[in-house]
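Person: At home tonight, work slowly through the protein below, taking as long as you need, and write a paragraph about the fold.
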Amino acid sequence: MFNAAEIIQRRKDLWVENQNIQLDKEYVNCIAEFLCDATNPNSELLRKEIKLNPELLIEMVFVIVEKGDNSQEDARTVPFFLNKVQKSFVDDLNIAIEQYKAGLRNFLKFIILKGRQQGFTSFITAYQLARCITSQNFSGYTLADNSGNSQDIFNKKAKFPYDSLPELLKPTEKYNTKNDLFFSGLNSSWKIGTAEAKETGRSKTINFFHGSESAFWISISSILAGLGEAITKSSIQILETTGNGYNEFKTIWDEAVKGENNWEPKFYEWWLTPEYRLNFETHEIEEKFKEQVENEVNDFFKTLNSLRIYQGLDWNQLYWYENKRKDKKELLPQEYPCTPQEAFVSTGRKYFDASKIKNMLIIASSKKKLESKDFAHLDHPYSKLFDPPLRDGMTIYDYPRVGKHYIFGADVSEGLDNDASHCKLFDYETMREVAHIHGQFSPDLFGELIVKYAKLYNNAFGAVERNNHGHLTLATIYKYLGYKNIYKEMVLDKTKEKETLKLGWLTTENSKYLMLDELDTAIRDELIEIYDEECLNELFSVVTDKDGKVKINGKDRTAASAIAYQMRKFYKIKKINFDVF
């Protein structure tokens, strides 16, 4: 008996050996005959295996037109074998389906942000087709951003592989039109439409929905609202797209990342697509390119070197990316992103150096987060005080080290709704992020957490923003818990006509631009290392509007980082004393 994996592997071996589509067709016909043999119990087992995992049928019998350089000889028909990103997504999808069946999740909703031509539309279309011809009562629906793309999806990615199937595998058709397929024996259908009309999708019953290039739709919310009543509870819903600026899709994506909606975010870097690589024309060109990368002759080559060192990309991948930059120029990040935030090209001028943030994100994505439970095992005077409840919202990149000096900055929220408080701790000498606290804490609890970790990090010196609710946090730190190693500002009390000390950092229009400008300089000159990916994404989104103004309301990670960097100017190194408390 052969299972699906063995049949697929045999097809792959035959293709590698012969590269002959006619021979492949003969093998596929043999598979079809075996699958349709009603007298063979092994055939029945294989059919059951395919019904559970329709992607198996794709690799067993489907074909696709190979991507080429638009020349006649490259546009050839080949077996449809899943690439790395397609396989990664379907593996995640299958896990999610099992979790749904087990009652461990309530939705099968995925939002995909990706680079161009990574094969998602081809795969999702083929997956729907495979389910449509193997399942009872299947109802699939695909929406593309415009009518031209919808017809391209249906004709090239659905009808072509369907028409190429052996006749034995084609169910009885009720109709087969330019927009849909309906199989009467299975009561199974698949239809395509366009998102150009806001009312599209109403009055349908759908158990699989695919939104293609959804960042380019007229109105995602209106379309999803119309589809809401039609989509069944157990339906699979997928929105996939390349980025398209700061628009409605980005809002949905950001909410998904924060867990504020029911979409599960999936991002796929350009380098996960294996064919994105380019050979060097000559040995001389190769050597010159490698020298430029290793010497980081400009910011882009520094990015290439970071990708090589921290993500393990090889020289042919880097050379491909460099050549894409020459073609795409400023659109390169949107169409072939290295990070999710990079995929969204904003309309305002970015406040912080985008190329430096990108490099920091590449490094941060490879940075290992440490286990907080291991604090208790440190050879450290305060390790015995550590009790790691999950509510601390603590992320650790480096444990406190005896003899080291640390500083922090904190931005305080009300602890309500989606507003969060954030405290960022840095190694004073290197300005490398060592840890951060993030969560929706009440101001007094946030103060308790700051003291707890400031002590652990050798009585770290730092500042809490005193605007609004920061006053209660500061009172908790200084008055109720007696932690004195915090920033105090000398201010003029106009009523008493004398200078007094005020606890904490006051953010005004002047001090805001001071701390943001100096943080920008530190980022540009590589004087600070931030490993918090959400913070880096937030920094990426800070823009200067048409009036020259910068808003950081709600950007708690940005504010905390900027305040922490200011503390370098006010911290006076002294002997670390563990007996003051």
